[in-house]
Amino acid sequence: METVAKAAKPGASTKAADSVATAQLMQWMHALQFGDSTLPTGAFTFSHGLESAIERGLVTDAASLHSYVKTAVEQASVGDGVGLLNAYRSAKAADIDGLLKADRAIYNRKLNEETRTMTVRTGRKLIELADKVIGASRSAPVLSQWREKVTAGETPGCYPVCQALIFAELDIPEDACFMVHQYGVAMAILSAALRMVRVDHVDTQTILFKLNQTIAEDYAMAATRKLEDMANFAPVVDLLAAIHVKAHVRLFMN
Q1: 230 pLDDT above the threshold of 70
Q2: What's the CA gap between 34 and 27, in Å, rounded?
Q3: What is the Cα–Cα distance from 90 to 134, expressed in whole angstroms?
Q4: Whether 28 contacts 171, CB under 8 Å
Q5: Partner of 190 for a Cys bridge, out of 87, 92, 111, 204, CB 3.0 to 4.6 A?
Q6: Full-model pTM
Q7: What whole-number distance in Å separates Cα of residue 96 and Cα of residue 90?
Q8: Are 129 and 39 in contact (CB under 8 A)?
């Protein structure tokens, strides 16, 4: 009997390994779907201040574009990225109060009208989409409850919080959630740059590849911070956003 039991173990372990591998594949598939820049959230209508930066001569080529995107990604990691991770942990614990605190903390750190509009508008679209898509396959009570609060105006519904909630609901690891968020910030600006700066797809992909090299360090730093440790400081970007509000001609919402 002992020999039979020993012989059965490899098969059992193989099945367990296959199950884990399948779960991981599904996590990555879901991460790709809900991190896709083509999601109908309206994100493509925002340039993260790039339009004003170009108009003022601050971004003119691939080198200056790289510098601009690098700053945006760094600011996201110590600001929205920290809020994202705190929201993720609250979502895993089904802590609605924690989600509300994270949402308010992110919203309050948006100093200008355009950045507030961007995070709220895209966040609401994202949570509406996810509630319908995920809800069509299974019950997701926390996600549905959050959507109700956002729709009722009880909370702003900032994009990072909505994204964190979705990833937590789908059991996607928090480091992957952070990675997708940072990737999204970079790609939003680089996609806008293709329409306004003298760069091509090779330039933007090269910039993206370089920026991705620090993602592990950025996550390690953000993962240890609490909501009160969120610290954005990019005054030039804030000024560019303020200028953009009064611009007579513009392609993007911000």
Answers
A1: yes
A2: 11
A3: 19
A4: no
A5: 204
A6: 0.86
A7: 7
A8: yes
